[in-house]
């Protein structure tokens, strides 16, 4: 399956009507199965699916290391895609104990959880000291925007990236903002790159699930183009994550833990 497809439309307005052709992002059901049982069905963009499955497995706590996924295959079907994974024995036993079903819409980050307590589960405290300059942070989302070919075609997908002092190392796109971040986390894990060495960059607002995923990946900084929710801000503060939001057009607002900036601006 391709990540996009053409579509015809009729443009209307005061100047009359005219036919247009647009490129739209594909959105397909992606089933993630472990040892023969479906754990989740997510609506996702059909690209970088190995990264997506690895990142999802890590941020859902199904594995703690990509090596614990003993085997992975991507199987296209007429009605969607199945990502089949087989786990090491210890992880398979643990998953059997906590099995839960998740079926959700595009990029839903809390679908199917068993309890309210799980939605606000304790997170590891992040002590990563990777430092970025104020200029790198303020221009991060503008840089990510240059690495969004599917968005250029469709104007309808989110992106996530991984920024280090050396530049934007990874970028991934998806119709779901949670999916895009999972793809980046998976790509880092599959290449043995430590998320503590840089920052995640997002084209969306910051919700609690995105902070949770960042903390579970061990990343100490989250930079987003839009604002955070109040709960996301409190969660980032408690987890030791530097939360930067409203990063666009060369400016940004640092809400928590500004000490990771190598050029912290003076506040009067």
UniProtKB/TrEMBL annotation:
What broad class describes the main subcellular location of this protein?
cytoplasm
Q: Which UniProt keywords apply?
A: Cytoplasm, Molybdenum cofactor biosynthesis
Q: Which domain of life is it from?
A: Bacteria
Active site per the UniProt annotation: 108 (cysteine persulfide intermediate)
The organism is: Primorskyibacter flagellatus
The record's similarity note reads: Belongs to the FdhD family.
Q: Which InterPro entries match?
A: Cytidine_deaminase-like, FdhD
The organism's taxonomy opens as: Bacteria, Pseudomonadati, Pseudomonadota, Alphaproteobacteria, Rhodobacterales
Q: Where in the cell is it found?
A: Cytoplasm
The reply on keyword Cytoplasm is: yes
**Pfam families per UniProt:** FdhD-NarQ
* GO CC terms, sorted: cytoplasm
Outline what the protein does.
Answer: Required for formate dehydrogenase (FDH) activity. Acts as a sulfur carrier protein that transfers sulfur from IscS to the molybdenum cofactor prior to its insertion into FDH.
List, alphabetically, the PANTHER family matched. FORMATE DEHYDROGENASE, SULFUR CARRIER PROTEIN FDHD
Q: Which GO terms describe its molecular function?
A: sulfur carrier activity; sulfurtransferase activity
* Protein name listed in UniProt: Sulfur carrier protein FdhD
Gene Ontology biological-process annotations: Mo-molybdopterin cofactor biosynthetic process
């Amino acid at each position: 399956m391709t990540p996009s497809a053409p579509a015809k439309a009729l443009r209307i307005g005061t100047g009359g009507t005219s036919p247009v052709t647009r490129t739209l992002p594909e959105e397909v059901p992606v089933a993630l199965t472990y040892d023969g049982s479906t754990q989740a069905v997510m609506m996702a963009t059909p690209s970088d699916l190995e990264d997506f499955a690895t990142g999802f497995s890590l941020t859902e706590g199904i594995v703690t290391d990509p090596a614990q996924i003993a085997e992975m295959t991507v199987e296209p079907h007429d009605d969607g895609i199945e990502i089949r994974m087989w786990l090491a024995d210890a992880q398979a036993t643990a998953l059997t104990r906590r099995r839960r079903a998740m079926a959700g819409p595009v990029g839903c980050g809390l679908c199917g959880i068993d309890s309210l307590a799980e939605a606000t589960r304790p997170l590891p405290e992040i002590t990563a000291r990777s430092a970025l300059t104020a200029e790198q942070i303020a221009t991060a989302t503008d840089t990510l925007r240059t690495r969004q070919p599917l968005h250029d075609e469709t104007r309808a997908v989110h992106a996530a990236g991984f920024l280090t002092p050396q530049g934007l190392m990874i970028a991934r796109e998806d119709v779901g903002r949670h999916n895009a971040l999972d793809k980046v986390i998976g790509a880092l894990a599959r290449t043995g790159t430590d998320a503590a060495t840089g920052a995640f960059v997002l084209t969306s607002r910051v919700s609690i699930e995105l902070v949770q995923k960042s903390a579970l990946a061990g990343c100490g900084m989250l930079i987003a183009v839009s604002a955070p929710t109040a709960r996301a801000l409190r969660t980032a503060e408690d987890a030791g994550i530097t939360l930067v939001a409203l990063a666009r057009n060369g400016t940004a607002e640092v809400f928590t833990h500004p000490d990771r900036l190598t050029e912290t601006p003076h506040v009067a």
